[in-house]
From TrEMBL:
InterPro entries: AB_hydrolase_fold, Peptidase_S10, Ser_caboxypep_his_AS, Ser_caboxypep_ser_AS. The lineage of its organism: Eukaryota, Viridiplantae, Streptophyta, Embryophyta, Tracheophyta. Residues 1-22 form the signal peptide. It is found in: Secreted. One of its GO terms (cellular component) is vacuole. Its main location: secreted. It comes from Lactuca saligna (Willowleaf lettuce). It comes from the Eukaryota. Its EC number is 3.4.16.-. GO terms for biological process: proteolysis. SUPFAM superfamilies: alpha/beta-Hydrolases (SSF53474). Keywords: Carboxypeptidase, Disulfide bond, Glycoprotein, Hydrolase, Protease, Secreted, Signal. This is Carboxypeptidase. It is an enzyme of class 3 (hydrolase).
Length: 479
């Protein structure tokens, strides 16, 4: 492959000659961002991956950290998917990459990684972004930025990130692009999509080819989310009648991120009544090595794969791994302030969060009418932003149903339920908690495949059909 050789020679030449200079040529920077091997990686991978920074604001010195894993097969023909975690303040590397949809998951020893067979980079080029500044490896040279994050700047910086990143990775310009995320990314994903759609209107010559987005267990509408939350807690038998009643009185009209003291207190009581269970996944054991949080969206504890080698403490292994100097060197991590430890979620970012609208239903409405593909999914054993909350939110959109509620199947088993609305598809994932791809990795891969293809989740008939045609195929081959 002569092109590769030339590129490689150029890369060696430029990188040697530009050690002291900042690299101005984006393609050169792309090559410099390539990650060769991760510490504790004892297997080979068939895909290239890249990690580094994109400056989103030069004045303040704000830079966002990304990690791109190309598709395993034929990356040039595959779409680009951006994955975002929430919090606010939680790292997409900690969750998305290291325990959900990414190819590299961290082992128990905190020193090595294993390959996730259900990684979404088996179907797409997968981009992780630590957003906003102060989260994961992302930073700002203006310290006060960390204490002044909010939805608006997060969307604006993320858009700037994409524009600058596409300059460094021009092979993805014009590529089909999708955004997916969960939890507080229920704000980030539609807000960034809206920023892109509006940007595209002004820049018709160089649009970002956004095709759609998907959010799971997503904070959407504070009223619906609160009503659904307490209803779920009560119906699942986790809280008392009295607390159920009280919580509705005190919280229904409150902001999820900035609740009143009274609402906060009744939520504390609700969590106390629940006892030491994992609210993010109510039927799996919590990680007993960590304290239990009572904050709705803050993440301290973790659960592993149900029914598999089970490890509810994954976050702690990531905290060891991503603080290793050799790991940070391999990922080209910049040390703006060496005293800052890498954390799965940055508490300072979370507690100092500024603007957070009480609803993003209007954003969904605008984007649905702009023609984007919009999917909303929900793991149905989550007591943080439960399936009931999401159903109330979708109901508030008042969309006509185009395909009625039904079960969907994988391997002959009910994977969850789905309903098609005009402009929106809703999919639940049975037995999955807040982090659907963590609890049900195989079903989550089926979900993203259908989302990217724009096909509906398999019905029972389809399962039977494909089984029949598969067995007919086998019989034919035997003949
Ligand atoms: C932040 O400051 C450091 C030290 O001056 C500098 O090397 C780096 O490029 C700055 N980052 C950004 C994004 O401006
Ligand atoms: C570096 O971190 C320390 C301790 O967290 C903090 O006091 C200081 O302001 C930080 N400096 C910069 C430039 O971010």
């Amino acid at each position: 492959m002569p092109i590769w050789n030339w590129g490689f020679l150029l890369f060696v030449f430029v990188s040697v000659s530009s050690v002291a200079l900042s690299v101005s040529d984006p393609i050169t920077q792309q090559k410099l961002d390539q990650v060769s091997n991760l510490p504790g990686q004892s297997f080979n991978v068939d895909f290239a991956h890249y990690a580094g920074y994109v400056t989103v604001n030069e004045e303040s010195g704000r830079a966002l950290f990304y990690w791109l894993t190309e598709a395993v097969e034929d990356p040039a023909s595959k779409p680009l998917v951006l994955w975002l975690n929430g919090g606010p303040g939680c790292s997409s590397i900690a969750y998305g990459m290291a325990e959900e949809v990414g190819p590299f998951h961290v082992n128990k020893d905190g020193k090595s990684v294993y390959l996730n067979p259900y990684s979404w980079n088996t179907v797409a080029n997968l981009l992780f972004l630590d957003s906003p500044v102060g989260v994961g490896y992302s930073y700002s040279n203006t310290t006060s930025d960390i204490l002044n994050n909010g939805d608006k700047r997060t969307a604006a910086d993320s858009l700037q990130f994409l524009l600058n990143w596409l300059e460094r990775f021009p092979q993805f310009k014009g590529r089909d692009f999708y955004i997916a995320g969960e939890s507080y990314a229920g704000h980030y994903v539609p807000q960034l999509s809206q920023a892109i759609v509006r940007y595209n209107k002004e820049n018709t010559k160089s649009p970002i080819n956004l095709k759609g987005y998907m959010v799971g267990n997503a904070l959407t509408d504070d009223y619906s989310d609160h009503v659904g939350l307490f209803q779920f807690m009560w119906a699942a038998g986790l809280i008392s009648d009295q607390t159920y009643k009280k919580s509705n009185e005190l919280c229904d009209k409150e902001s999820f991120i900035h609740p009143s003291r009274e609402c906060d207190q009744i939520v504390d009581i609700a969590y106390e009544e629940m006892g030491n269970i994992d609210a993010y996944s109510i039927f799996t054991p919590p990680c007993t090595a960590t304290g239990v949080t009572k904050r709705l969206l803050r993440r301290w504890h973790k659960v592993g794969h149900i029914g598999q080698s089970y490890d509810p403490c994954t976050e702690q292994h990531s905290t060891i791994y991503f603080n290793l100097p050799e790991v940070q060197n391999a990922l080209h991590v910049f040390h703006s302030n060496t005293s800052r430890k890498w954390e799965t979620c940055n508490n300072a970012v979370n507690l100092n969060w500024k603007d957070s609208p009480i609803s993003v239903l209007d954003v969904h409405q605008e984007l649905i009418s702009s023609g984007l593909r919009v999917w909303i999914f929900s793991g149905d054993t989550d007591a943080v932003i439960p399936v009931t909350s999401t159903r109330y939110s979708i109901d508030a959109l008042k969309l006509p149903t185009v395909s009625p509620w039904r079960a969907w199947y994988d391997d002959g088993q009910v994977g969850g339920w789905t309903q098609g609305y005009e402009g929106l598809t809703f999919v639940t994932v049975r037995g999955a908690g807040h982090e659907v791809p963590l609890h049900k990795p195989k079903l989550a891969l089926v979900l993203i495949k259908n989302f990217l293809a724009g096909t509906s989740m398999a019905s029972f008939d389809q399962v039977i059909e494909s089984k029949t045609s598969a067995s007919e195929q086998i019989l034919k081959e035997l003949e």
